[in-house]
Write a structure and sequence with these properties.
The complex is a heterodimer. Chain A is built from seven helices and five strands; from the N terminus they run βαβαβαβαβααα. By secondary structure, chain A is α/β, with parallel strands linked by helices. Chain A folds into two domains: about 130 residues, D-Maltodextrin-Binding Protein, domain 2 (3-Layer(aba) Sandwich); about 60 residues, Winged helix-like DNA-binding domain superfamily/Winged helix DNA-binding domain (Arc Repressor Mutant, subunit A, Orthogonal Bundle). In chain A, strands 2-1-3-5-4 form a five-stranded mixed beta sheet, sandwiched between helices. By secondary structure, chain B is an alpha/beta fold. Helices cover about 40% and strands about 20% of the residues of chain B. In chain B, helix 4 packs across helix 14 and helix 11 packs across helix 16. Chain B is globular, with a radius of gyration of 20 Å. In chain B, a hairpin with an 8-residue loop joins strand 12 and strand 13. Chains A and B meet through helix 3 and helix 4 of A and helix 3 of B.
Amino acid sequence: MRIAIVDESATRAAVIHEGLAALDDCEIFVVTERRGLVARIGEIAPDIVLMDLGNPSRDVLEEYFSVSRALARPIAMFVDESDEAAIAASIDAGVSSYVVDGLAPHRIRPILDLAVRRFNAFARLQTDLDEARGKLAERETIDRAKRILMDSRSIGEPQAYAELRKTAMDRGRRIVEIAEAVVTAHQLMGGKP
Amino acid sequence: MTRELGIGFLPLVDACLPILAHEHGFAEDEGLSLRLVRSLSWATVLDRLLYGHCDAAHLVAPLAIATTLGRSRPSQPLSVPFVLGLNGNAITLRPDLAEKVCPAGRLGDPRIVGLTLAALAKTSASQGKRMRFGVVHRYSSHNYMLRYWLAACGIRPDHDVEIVTVAPPFCADALEAGEVDGICVGEPWNSVAVERGAGRIVLATAQIWRRGVEKVLALREPVLEDRREDVEALIRALVRAARHFVDPGNWQANAAILARCEYLDGSAELIQRAISDRLLLARGTNPVRFADFMFQYREAANFPWVSQAEWLYSQMVRWDGMKFSEADAALATRVFRPDVYRRALAGTDEPLPGASSKVEGSLGGTTVVGTQQGAITLEKNSFFDGMIFDPHDLKGYLSRLP
């Protein structure tokens, strides 16, 4: 079975690819380039196309599929049209799929389930990464605020941190918010960012 | 308590009414909280509508009918209680092609541009290189307007020229790369192509059909029935947004809102140009004014005339290789729901027409029409080739088309 993964995010495509690689008897093709997409899909002649829901080229691909109906390469969307739960799960996960008519449902379903799981896993990964990035940025802000306090008031690092923490507690705010205020004020007063 | 409605949209200027209804608090005044969901393809807008991520959607009108009739995917009945606007699209050609078919400095005459283009297209086809035009979706008014114009000028779509789908954000790229010779798309995407020197605007679709239906508000029929009160509240909020949108005093502020990254994520300057009916036809020139380029409110523009649905069905039969069927025609007609629009606005100061269907393209000049409430004057509304669409004679109309 030939599976095409169309995703402008190369990282996500790799995550999906890795998930599907375990399947027997499957050849997997990854397309990340928008230009020439339709021609590339034509070359691959996939049995299934997995595509991220947000891909702006979906209308182009659907048009190609509906026209290619005349070329005896009929394509239907999704596995079994009556399987609303499966469709809803894939929409939730952000994956759309196009399946060539005549492919046995029992062969398709596991692929889609896997794809949905991988999409969800990728989304979780992204959230974790965003959170980690956020934490890192927060720490940088706090470090900068500490440095400003240390320089302007000639105090040590533990004391600078204690001041930030005390102010935060007194005002019912998070330390990073106080630190941001210090950094902003410092910049307004003409200090270096 | 406020009730939430999720509304899907594509980043286009004519997604303006739900966005402004939300931003200016018109929805809130009706007890609604709108959650606007941005997508980048109509396929995704439709998926999110059909599988409940959104309750309603900004949709190309023919797609609402195609979905109801089960074209390309399993049939799901959709309902359209409100028209989000008329026209607002343009045809942009490669600059060297535009130069051959259209005098510089103004929009062309659709008949002359078409006839000149026909000769070039046929020569090109005879040399084995068919001209190619991009439209935003198979089931879009863009596709039907372009085809209507080409066919009336003696160019047979799918024979003499190719028509392909190009996503709006990539229209300028496709022109620039020579993948297409022309595009029919909404704003700001023609302007983006013009600004980049990749194209020149030669026609506004309003020149093909003066009052052509464009985007609609679509819901799944069961959702419309379940949430009738909320939908009626939404209609009232959208009408207020429409009045606000067409007031020149609000153009600058509204353009700035629409330009924001969560909405169109584009240039406020280009957006303001579109909403103030000014078009920059070619790079390095001054914008020209084209009255009613976009048409979002006056003349009961938001009223879902069933004759509009029937015209769209006639074009679907014409271009989709479908057989005309009374049953399909009836299904398509039922997609547009003037009854819901009327109930939402009865007793308000918003004018309501007396009839729900009209003979499209038949108004040669300003006409006062009978109303249920208020006063309505319709201006000229014709097709450029002078044809008239009488919904009572769908089959006859189809047989007279070229």
